[in-house]
Amino acid sequence: MNGCMKRRPAHTEDADREEPSDQYGKEKKMPYIHSNVSVKITEEQRIHLKEGLGKAISIFEGKSEHGLMLRFSEDCCMYHQGSCQFPTACVQVYLFGEQKKQAYLDFTKEICGLYGQVLHISGEHVYITYETADAWGCNYRNS
Fold first, then answer.
1. What's the predicted TM-score (pTM) here?
2. How far apart are CA 33 and CA 13, in angstroms?
């Protein structure tokens, strides 16, 4: 178990399950960002990325750090155009529901800047993909 996980007691009986909360509504379902980078990430850099992504996700309507899930895969062997000579990032962003075209552009600019500032990866080597879902499952049910 890594340092960012806390153990919670497992509940096996239906009576112990909490009722799912609809406090966020359909528009605010959890965004998920998976960052694959070719460089090692220090704990300090990971914290800066977490904070930066937490702020940047609010570019998307109805999204906030409160529901954001992050995954960092570091030191990946990544080739682009037949070479692995440049630090590279491939950032996969999963969102519940479509967003405005301008929001995608604004988020791309923010992420390229963030990864440049924190990991020293040039914006020309930061690749971002976006996927949206119409359904999202969590807490024993789907949206």
1. 0.80
2. 32
